[in-house]
Amino acid sequence: MEPIVEFGSLQVPGQEDYADVRRVFPGRDYIGCDFRLGAGVEVVDNMEFSRFPPESVGTVICLETLEHVKHPWLAVAEAFRILKPGGTLLVSMPFRLPAHDFPDDYWRLTRSGLEVLLRDAGFSEVDVADSGEETLFDLGWDKPRENPASVPYPFLVFGIARKSDSRLREQREVARGGALKHRLSYLPSSYLGSGSEGRIARLREPTPIVIAVFYREGDTRRALDHLNKVTKNYSLIIVNNGFDDPDYLKGLRPSHYIENDHNVGAMAAVNQGLDVAEGDYICVLHCDLLIYDDGWLDHILDFMDRRPDVGLVGLAGRHAIKTDGNFDHETTVFTMDGYLDSFKPSWRFSEVATIDGIGWVMRNEGFRLDEGLGIMHYYDLDLSLRYIEAGYRVYVAQVDTLHYGLYRSSRFTEKYLEDVGGDDDVYFKEVQERFRRKWEHMLPIVRGPRDERYGYLRIEELNDQVEQLNNENAKMADWIEKAAEYIPKLEEQCRAKTAEIDKAAKHITHYKGGTRNCQDSPATAASSGTHR
């Protein structure tokens, strides 16, 4: 099954002739991954927390690599996470081999140990084996050929594991909950994250999702109905800023329902939800956002668990905020159909200077949106800089979304325009200036690299735009050429029409003059009884 992803694909000097595994899979979609670039490597990735999205890989290959991974149980769990249902993991490890640093050497496993590792990661269909015993003579030791001594351990262990159907996997994860807690209790606190029990906490406590609603009933229903299909273990906090059917909202059985008698603005409404939210993490979503990736929230929380330096993860964002306080549109990071391919993240997570307000997950450090900026705009940039100023990093997750607000926004409703003084563009500039004055000590700011993929895609997109403009210019030139041929004919027609109009004007003038003379004649005056 494709794509095929190999971890540990770097062909170190001296191994080029036999370490190229992709030769076994000619014509297949094959991606080589390792800690560093080099021969055989297309993507720099860490198997302990891979950048590949959930259920996006068909086959994972990991040959003579796990011995170099500090936490191989995390690496195998990541392989399970990124594999599609029905996907296969191929893995091997040396047993009898001297320590070799690439960059270090940590582990050896028997075939029974490898089987435990694979099954604990979630694989149910597992087949393991070893290479059998070697002899001292085979190892090159100076012993008589006719009576070689046996070495009582294998040279290699290897295994094949298959990821089963998602429904069976969910049942198994529930059954394995206690064992998972026991295993993770051995992990260092640096992995679990400060002030948190990491992945175990999410098995016990749902993550609060704050959603403020303001009209947009149809979009809100679709978004909330769809949210339940792709999100597990969450509690809903709804703040009603104006919705014609509050019974529908209450029927969703939110953990908290707050209803305002007027539109208090997006910032104040979100803050109302944040005030009642509890837990290590809080999620905030627009009421008109569709999320398509199943398990997207766990995808983000897993990342934040193992990265205590990350305080904020958005579903969209930008790498740069300019000196004037506006974000740099050219550095947008967003996964949505219709957006430029260069805007889509290259990795599972991309560091940015600011998230976009359509949705985010925040480490619960007590931060709130700054209502001093206004009722709308710039709260996302402001929140991002508050986390950065506090020493955290800000990221965007690769999650496929659809934001209805790009096509129809409540910002154009009569009620909203009344609240902001009638002109949202003018109001936007006012809030931008407040934001700029507040953060001018940190502006401009740029966070996160753009890789070669962005450059190549941007070049292709710009070339496409140039080609499109050239085609339009060619069509325009053709039209102008045809128009130039037609203009003399049109001028002749205009001259003919002008002559006809002049002739008609003279006739009308003559007709009017004749009528006046007739009316003013003595005979006419006498017949009408008029006397001069």
Low-confidence stretches: 135-139, 141-149, 167-204, 518-532
Classified by CATH, the class of the largest domain is Alpha Beta
In what order do the strands lie side by side in the largest sheet? 12-11-10-13-21-15-22-19
Our estimate of the beta-strand percent is 15-25%
The global form is globular
CATH homologous superfamily grouping of the largest domain:
Spore Coat Polysaccharide Biosynthesis Protein SpsA, Chain A
Count of distinct structural domains: 2
**How many strands in all?**
24
Helix content: 25-40%
Task: Work out the radius of gyration.
Answer: 35 Å
Overall pLDDT metric: 80
Question: Please, could you describe this protein's structure?
Answer:
The chain is α/β, with parallel strands linked by helices and 532 residues long. The chain has an eight-stranded mixed sheet with strand order 12-11-10-13-21-15-22-19, sandwiched between helices. Strands 3-2-1-4-5-9-6 form a seven-stranded mixed sheet. It contains 15 helices and 24 strands. The model is unreliable at 135-139, 141-149, 167-204 and 518-532 (pLDDT under 50). It has two domains: 4-175, Vaccinia Virus protein VP39 (Rossmann fold, 3-Layer(aba) Sandwich), CATH 3.40.50.150; 206-450, Alpha-Beta Complex (Spore Coat Polysaccharide Biosynthesis Protein SpsA, Chain A), CATH 3.90.550.10. The N and C termini lie far apart (111 Å). Helix 1 crosses helix 2 (111-121).
